[in-house]
């Protein structure tokens, strides 16, 4: 019988006090779980790489000039982000250098608290509309909690109590400002943590204030910033532990479903949020910010403990294995801002059409200034994952919640301390062996999670039913449990993304094995910044009913690299010539499938997504009776603003007005009074006699206006011919011009901008 651990107030590890709802699991203290195998190797790379040594590089992490230890100095989220992961990295690895530096920072931070409870940079007291910015303190509370759990430092509890009491004096409007407005779920978790240790009832009053004053995730999605979503969607369920309204938990489940249905229609566990999730930008070439990966994993881990619902654990593993390792280079020295399901070149150029931000987002850099939040924040992902492999249960047992080679030491049963060793090559292998080490026989329940994909799973040779298997018995030294999780190869069809298909084996999604060429583009010998270029074809589609062969390789030191991955697949595919990169070397948008192709059938190799820095994981389907793809128009311009899109004029969206800010735009900003152009290469000659332009004009908010004049031209060999017609420059409407038919492949619009203004285009079409 499937059995979920009971939600009670028992157990050995700080259960929820009344009136908080009891939950089935309790987090073990940092240091209770020793990572082994590939996870220990990833953590060792982190110690030696970017997170473990980022204070050598980032000027945000200079102790002597940091506002978190000297309140007269400036500082914001960078140190809190970094210290949260850095400290826990030390706790799970035991690295003395990391622990020593963590202690120095913690001592400095604890020494800054003012009489009223505020701590850290004084300027943050009044930085938001004259009131305090509480956001950067939220991750720091997480760092202090871990420090307390690891060391028992008696200063932490009164420090947090004074700080949260200061928050409790604030008016309601303070809770709905800036980034913190969408992330108070983190602070609610810290308030619960403190309440469970002190019993101070005013902390629950503060939780009511935080929920009532902050962004409303109960009614829907209040903000589409990807990291806000990754942290904020869970807030209703967290508040529901106090408010006891089942609609609150339902809101969290609904929020997640809404996000993924709109923007998560591709493999890897993330969603399209290359800053904000945006209508029309859900193709698998869109990216998920590395901060989002780390924060969403953390949310899933919390929700597993609160609910016991293994769907959250499955989702955490999917992100951890398929997206997280690809967010940094194989040595974990540099990283990028976003990770995509389909991405065939990682260069250091702005992409005017794919991504929202006005900076290059894909090359591997240490990113102190370019990527800023992500290299400071990513470090919590693997340490937190390691700490959630095992959970304590409220019936004084243990639960193997996630799988990786590890050793846990914990108090169970009547208070006996036991160790359980987990031996496995999961997620690359389907067998997990648990071995109990105990000085004397002890009775306690041992729970084993069964992933949702593991049909036919067995525990000790018996078929597993449901998502948790409970083994309640008297355990003796050397007793073993063998878990078999059949990893069948399967495919998923993504109907909302042109019926593209992805390939899974267990928790791993597979990507085309593309030959990768790394090129140093900056940095130093010790910290080289890298671009990655493809050295083999990538534009393959898969047949509707593909067959696969599993190929086992000799495992390398790092299984999340092309050379080290221990399992691969082979199958057949056909190239689709019309599937190209655009003018800025971004993988082209998927087109309606299945695709028609006459290219020969080839054998291709697939490797796990997490081992592929260049990847195609969302494949078009191909079929002899499929739809013919077209070569997409290539768009260039004399200039384009870094925050705008080259593809916007050709994306098919119709603006509501010239000032429509709900759709992408193209502008020549900040060029003013100049002659500028935008050019279409239609890829083949076409007959045309009409041009339609919808000008961008942000009168009242910006400095773009309709141009002083404009004209269209077509290219004949090397000669540009002006098109003779009447050109209108009216805002808030399509400006349509007809002309004597011409046959051309390359056409352009040339505009003379008003002397003190720039200009832009929302829609442009030749027909």
UniProtKB/TrEMBL annotation:
It holds the Pfam family Beta-AFase-like_GH127_cat. InterPro entries: 6-hairpin_glycosidase_sf, Beta-AFase-like_GH127_cat, Beta-AFase-like_GH127_middle, FA58C, Galactose-bd-like_sf. Residues 1-26, 641-660 are annotated as: Disordered. Gene3D superfamilies: Galactose-binding domain-like. It comes from the Bacteria. Transmembrane segments: none annotated. GO terms for biological process: carbohydrate metabolic process. Residues 617-767 form the F5/8 type C domain. PANTHER family: PROLINE-TRNA LIGASE (DUF1680). This is F5/8 type C domain-containing protein.
């Amino acid at each position: 019988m499937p059995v979920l651990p009971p939600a009670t107030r028992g157990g050995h590890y700080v259960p929820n006090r009344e009136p908080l709802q009891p939950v089935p699991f309790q987090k073990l203290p940092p240091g209770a779980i020793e990572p082994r195998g590939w996870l220990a190797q990833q953590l060792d790379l982190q110690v030696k790489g970017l997170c473990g040594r980022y204070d050598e590089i980032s000027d945000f992490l200079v102790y002597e000039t940091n506002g978190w230890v000297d309140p007269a100095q400036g500082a914001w989220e960078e140190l809190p982000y970094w210290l949260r992961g850095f400290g826990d990295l030390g706790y799970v690895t035991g690295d003395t250098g990391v622990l020593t530096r963590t202690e120095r920072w913690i001592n400095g931070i604890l020494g800054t608290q003012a009489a009223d409870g505020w701590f850290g940079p004084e300027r943050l007291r009044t930085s938001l509309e004259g009131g305090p910015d509480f956001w950067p303190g939220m991750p720091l509370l997480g760092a202090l909690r871990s420090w307390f759990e690891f060391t028992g430092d008696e200063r932490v509890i009164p420090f947090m109590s004074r700080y949260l009491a200061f928050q409790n004096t604030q008016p309601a409007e303070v809770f709905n400002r800036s980034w913190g407005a969408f992330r108070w779920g983190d602070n609610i978790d810290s308030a619960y943590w403190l309440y469970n240790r002190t019993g101070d009832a005013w902390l629950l009053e503060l939780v009511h204030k935080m929920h009532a004053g902050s962004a409303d995730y109960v009614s829907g999605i209040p903000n589409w910033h990807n990291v806000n979503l990754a942290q904020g969607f869970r807030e209703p369920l967290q508040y529901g532990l106090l408010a006891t309204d089942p609609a609150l938990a339902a809101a969290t489940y609904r929020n997640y479903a809404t996000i993924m249905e709109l923007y998560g229609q591709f493999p890897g566990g993330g969603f399209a949020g290359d800053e904000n999730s945006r209508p029309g930008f859900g193709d698998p070439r869109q990216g998920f910010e590395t901060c989002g990966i780390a924060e969403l994993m953390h949310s899933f881990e919390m929700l597993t403990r609160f609910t016991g619902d293994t769907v959250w654990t499955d989702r955490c593993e999917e992100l951890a294995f398929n997206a997280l390792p690809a967010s940094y280079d194989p040595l974990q020295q540099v990283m990028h801002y976003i990770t995509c399901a389909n991405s065939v070149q990682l260069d250091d150029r702005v992409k005017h059409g794919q991504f929202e931000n006005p900076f290059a987002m894909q090359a591997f850099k240490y990113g102190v200034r370019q990527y800023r939040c992500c290299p400071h924040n990513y470090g919590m992902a693997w340490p937190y994952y390691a700490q959630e492999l095992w959970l304590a249960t409220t019936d004084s047992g243990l639960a193997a919640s996630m799988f990786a080679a590890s050793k846990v030491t914990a108090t169970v049963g009547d208070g006996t301390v036991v160790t359980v060793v987990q031996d496995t090559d999961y997620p690359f292998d389907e067998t997990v062996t648990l071995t109990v080490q105990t000085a004397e026989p002890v009775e306690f329940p041992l729970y084993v999670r069964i992933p949702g994909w593991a049909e036919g799973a067995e525990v000790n040779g018996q078929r597993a039913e449901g998502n948790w298997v409970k083994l309640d018995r008297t355990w003796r030294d050397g007793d073993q449990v063998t878990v078999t999780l059949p990893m069948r190869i399967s495919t998923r069809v993504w109907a909302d993304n042109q019926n593209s298909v992805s390939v899974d084996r267990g928790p791993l999604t597979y990507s085309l094995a593309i030959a990768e060429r790394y090129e140093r583009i900056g940095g130093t010998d010790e910290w080289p910044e890298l671009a990655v270029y493809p050295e083999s074809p990538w534009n393959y589609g898969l047949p509707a009913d593909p067959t696969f062969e599993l190929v086992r390789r000799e495992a390398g030191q790092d299984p999340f690299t092309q050379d080290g991955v221990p399992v691969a697949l082979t199958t057949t595919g056909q190239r689709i010539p019309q599937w190209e990169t655009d003018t800025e070397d971004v993988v082209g948008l998927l087109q309606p499938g299945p695709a028609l192709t006459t290219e020969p059938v080839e054998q291709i190799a697939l490797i796990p997504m997490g081992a592929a820095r260049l990847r195609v994981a969302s494949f078009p389907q191909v079929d002899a009776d499929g739809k013919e793809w077209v070569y997409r128009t290539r768009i260039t311009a004399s200039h384009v603003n870094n925050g705008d899109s080259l593809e916007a004029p050709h994306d098919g969206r119709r603006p509501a007005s010239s000032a429509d800010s709900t759709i992408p735009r193209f502008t020549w900003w900040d060029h003013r009074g100049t002659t500028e152009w935008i050019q279409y290469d239609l890829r083949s000659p076409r007959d045309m006699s009409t041009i339609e332009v919808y000008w961008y004009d942000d009168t009242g908010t910006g400095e773009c206006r309709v141009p002083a004049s404009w004209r269209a031209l077509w290219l004949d060999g090397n000669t540009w011919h002006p098109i003779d017609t009447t050109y209108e420059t009216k805002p808030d409407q399509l400006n349509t011009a007809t002309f004597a038919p011409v046959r051309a492949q390359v056409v352009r619009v040339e505009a003379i901008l008003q002397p003190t203004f720039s200009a832009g285009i929302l829609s442009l079409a030749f027909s």
